[in-house]
Write a structure and sequence with these properties.
The structure is a single chain. The protein is mainly alpha-helical. α2 packs antiparallel against α5 and α3 packs across α4. The radius of gyration is 20 Å and the shape is globular. It starts with 27 loop residues before the first strand and ends in an 18-residue tail after the last helix.
Length: 180
């Protein structure tokens, strides 16, 4: 018997993507397997910056929640440094915490600052992003603006950010976490 367990006509079909992605919530069938399309994993758009507070984390908060012992704040954020040092080893040039810090605050970020922002978003997790906020690397508004600036649409990080909106009515429903 064939190890796939599929009829001869369907063998190998499981590796072929559907011609078009199905609409939200419509099951896809790939190689005879029914796959539910989870809208929570489709691309999302960060809410507009004005939907978020522009407050930097209060002093002392990083001490209470840090992963790394004594927290470093602002451009020296341990979370940012950990992302850049541990996840960019093969990069020809590593971005710095200072470039990210300044880029988050710049009206027109330099190419180096944009590289730092995009690299941080690519290489960090939602937990790293939380920790960087605790360590005063940026405000939620700055992060939303940066995500929009570089066209970031990763569902998990965007929806985690959108869940923090001070004005959630400004966030489109499709870009929020679904509540059961």
């Amino acid at each position: 018997m064939d190890p796939t367990g599929l009829p001869p006509a369907d063998r190998g079909a499981c590796c072929k993507p559907p011609a078009e992605p199905p609409p939200d919530g419509v099951p896809a069938v790939i190689g005879g397997l029914r796959i539910e399309v989870d809208p929570d994993h489709l691309p999302a758009t960060p809410g507009p910056p004005e939907a978020f507070d522009d407050d930097i984390a209060p002093d002392g908060l990083a001490d209470a929640v840090t992963w790394f012992g004594t927290p470093a704040l602002g451009p020296d954020s341990n979370a940012v440094c950990q992302v850049f040092l541990s996840r960019t080893a093969g990069y020809p040039r590593r971005p710095t915490g200072r470039e990210l810090y300044d880029g988050m605050r710049a009206e027109n970020p330099t190419p180096e600052q944009l590289f730092a922002i995009e690299t941080f978003l690519w290489e960090s997790t939602a937990e790293h992003q939380d920790q960087a906020w605790y360590e005063q690397a940026y405000s939620w508004r700055m992060l939303a603006r940066a995500m929009r600036l570089v066209g970031w649409t990763d569902a998990v990080e965007v929806r985690e950010l959108n869940a923090r909106a001070a004005r959630p009515e400004l966030i489109p429903a499709k870009d929020k976490w679904r509540r059961g």
